[in-house]
């Protein structure tokens, strides 16, 4: 028996920008952690979206039980993955294996953005846990 195929979908950038949200991310109401994201695009065992980082903003450390592929769109973003620094620029790719603690910050002089693709083949949906300054999981 043949599996049913999915339907191709186009997610136009203009529609994504119109749906940009500046709330719903851990600690996004605190200065230094302000960041936005477009509505998630979900397919079987994967999710993707665009993260926008205004000047001087960052994310708290977090860990996923899924692999993440980062694609730089504009600006410069420094990622810290298990203690190792990676600078992601326009059209650069970075892979973050499942289980790695990572954070990111805008390292440029203007806004920065990237595409994050979360991929999990053994189970779905993936989980995401944020860590405090001591490296402990927080709600």
From TrEMBL:
Sequence ranges assigned to domain Cupin type-2 in this UniProt record: 50-115
Superkingdom, taxonomy of origin: Bacteria
Classification lineage: Bacteria, Bacillati, Actinomycetota, Actinomycetes, Streptosporangiales
Name by which UniProt lists this protein: Cupin domain-containing protein
UniProt-listed InterPro entries: Cupin_2, RmlC-like_jellyroll, RmlC_Cupin_sf
Gene3D superfamilies: Jelly Rolls
